Amino acid sequence: MAAKKPYIIALEEHYLDPELKQQSANLNAIAPRDIVERLDDLGALRLKEMDESGIDFQVLSHSIPGLQGVDAATGVPLARRVNDRLAETVRAHPDRFAGFAALPTADPRAAADELERTVTKLGFKGAMINGLTGGVFHDDERFWPIYERAAALDVPIYIHPALPQAAVVEAYYKDYAQKHPGLLRAGWGFNVETATQGIRFVLSGVFDAHPGLKVILGHLGEGLPFYLWRISHGLRASMSEKTFREVFCEHFWITTSGFFSDPALVCCMMEMGIDRILFSIDYPFMDNPPGAEWIKTLPLSAEDTQKLLNGNARRLLKL
Fold first, then answer.
1. Among residues 139, 282, 287, 304, which one is catalytic?
2. What is the pTM of this model?
3. If exposure means fewest CB atoms within 10 Å of the residue's CB, which of 30, 99, 303, 317 is most exposed?
């Protein structure tokens, strides 16, 4: 008898709101045309490609730069419309979709209120924040009202990459970015910028102030699990009560989005434990089939496979 296909939940799966899309001056900076077509689709095409690869459920989140590229006056009312439209999609397919809120982080208190509205009124499962806001990392205390509210609501904040800030591009990448544009994105820039954000969260004290705060990082933690020992060793003199590794493993979850590597997964499991790792594709920036094929040969027990593919997401997101 053939083994029953496991239920698969993917939670870094993106879309593009039509109104917010107009705020992007250069959509080609986000994605080529075929990917934009999939970002635009929240119906037949998306469901067809999910079905073809055996993806049962997506948690939808707005693509980069999202509301992090919008000023406060525009972003606060726009966030409500964007999230209401996403809620309509979820209501149309509640067995296939859930939502992460888009937050107007240029006004952190309004963003906290919008997070609460989307969770308590719309049933959203948390929020995704893309890149920086006005060139500022999101560990800055001005953004802490968002995290206070997230902890009170017991929902996670997903910290997602966006393009590095202009000064970083100029200093680090300009020599190669034109020939190798992927260097700014998944090739290196996304990872470094978002890993730096993760480190800053630990050092900021936000987890002391809000001990219930839960943060998700994609792309197998943006490389941080591999560096946990080294970072903890390097910070041992200034972090005496808890090590960096202890704080990270207490407050962070990671996903497999766009990172389908057995050695990398095993490293993350050894450092953080399987209960902290959740399956994701990163659709449509990654196609569904590579991720769907990868999980068929995972070096995991049946119990751990179920945790990765659905159990951990059910618990974290209360699905």
1. 282
2. 0.97
3. 303
